[in-house]
Design brief:
Elements lengths: L1 E2 L22 E2 L16 E3 L6 E2 L16 E4 L5 E2 L11 E5 L26 E5 L6
Parallel strand pairs: 1-2, 2-4, 3-5, 4-6, 5-7, 7-8
Length: 134
């Protein structure tokens, strides 16, 4: 199962919930960009294990209905994350990466992530090697 590039781009008010199934393999570039009314349970984006690809700007300006996103879980199965994927999210966001830090571990599954995956999102706190959100 895939979410295509630009699938819900700038769907500011109509898309309020989304189910990310365990069979999801790919989230396309800008697929949820601008979905300001999208709500995630517990203000947490919990990406399913088995997901392999997150396109650039996929979660840019996702608003969680004005409450903001507080946590994101990226499983070890993700081998690519595009640039500025969380640009524009509000408040401090803890990002729990199951992968190890690629600047320390050359075998990390995150070595294929874009160097700008967290660019322009100065409010991110990255937790490498996390098994889940805390």
């Amino acid at each position: 199962v895939n979410i295509g590039d630009n699938a819900f781009l700038n769907n500011r008010t109509y898309l309020t919930t989304i189910n990310l199934p365990s069979t999801l393999k790919r989230i396309g570039a800008s697929s949820l960009n601008g979905c300001r009314s999208l709500v995630f349970e517990g203000d947490t984006i919990r990406l399913p294990r088995g997901l392999e690809y997150i396109g650039g700007a996929a979660f840019t300006n996702v608003g969680n209905s004005g409450r903001g996103i507080s946590k994101v879980f990226i499983p070890n199965s993700v081998t690519y994350v595009g640039g500025t994927v969380l640009y524009g999210v509000q408040g401090t966001v803890d990002v729990y990466c199951e992968a190890t830090d690629p600047t320390v571990d050359a075998e990390s599954t995150a070595t294929g992530w874009s160097k700008s995956w967290n660019q322009y999102a100065n409010n991110l706190v990255i937790h490498w090697g996390a098994s889940d959100v805390e």
